[in-house]
Amino acid sequence: MTSTRKPPPFGRTLCAMITPFTEDGALDLDGARRLAAHLVAEGCDGLVLNGTTGESPTTTDAEKTRLIEAVREAVGDRAALVAGVGSADTRHTVRLALAAGKAGADGVLVVTPYYSRPPQEAVAAHFRQVADASELPVMLYDIPGRTGTRIEPETLIRLAEHPRIVAVKDCSYDFLGTQKVLARSELAYYAGCDEHVLALYAVGAAGCVSTVANAVPAHIAAIPAAFDAGDTARARQLQLAATPLIEAMTGAGLPGTVTAKALLTRLGLPAGPVRAPLLPAGRETSDGLLSRYEALRAARSPRSAA
After folding, report:
1. In angstroms, how far is the first alpha carbon of the chain from the final one?
2. Which residues are annotated as a binding site for pyruvate?
């Protein structure tokens, strides 16, 4: 099947990578290198660093920069690196964006300013200031459930006119609004909710930014790959097979950071503890995550490449 999609600006399957810490809570750069290399080897062609799943609210600016540098060293040019630079302060966000560029990022992920709940014109001005200040392409992050403020579809359509605002990580849970923006702009959409990977891709998204890919990168990557190959039945099968694990990791009341780190620890991959105010998953939760992971692995066929 010949695809008519434009080349995605940051790859097709991006993992919202956790930030590994040592047992005493320090940044684990060696673990980050190993995890990043593993994710890329297993099918991720992009990594989002210092995002929500990467515990950006509790890492320092210096740690954010060091993480980008370490991961770039580990993956070279085999994957795009998108650096989370969002904050509630436009000036601080600009500084983070400039630092990310110097550290080797290929793009920046900019979340809607939170807590102050700016009106739409202020939201748009914030994003434009960041895009004007940095030479890197910008992925907007629409996640009103965390920020308290939506990037309204009409605002997104206006922002698409900026030459460096090229993509959206969509956690809006407004599928109608998303389709309106897709129909009226050239913005590359990335599903930010794992249950929407196939649905959003089917209506023209560029790919996904997946939390669940921390644990099953090859399986998540196989969903859009099957769709592009014209095997929509296989894509559907892969999406539905992942649903129990998606629910356990992102829909069971705990942040994806907590569940991803719990599962990666059980799998022997770099993770470490979460930083306060987050608390680690309990043993029962960890056992449940591992059980669903193992069920997904057992159910795969050679064709799934998961």
Report:
1. 22
2. 53, 209
Strand pairing partners for 50? Answer: none
- One-letter amino acid of 302: P
Overall pTM surpassing 0.85 (yes/no):
yes
Active site residue 189: no
Cis bond leading into 163, ω under 30°?
no
Q: Write down the catalytic residue from 6, 64, 102, 169.
A: 169
Q: How far apart are CA 141 and CA 150, in angstroms?
A: 10
Q: Give pLDDT tens digits for 132-153.
A: 999 999 999 999 999 999 999 9
- Annotation marks residue 190 as catalytic: no
Supply the mean pLDDT for the chain.
96
What per-residue string of b and e applies to 70-106 under the rule 16 or more CB within 10 Å gives b? bbbebbeeebbbbbbbbbeebeebbebbbbbbebbbb
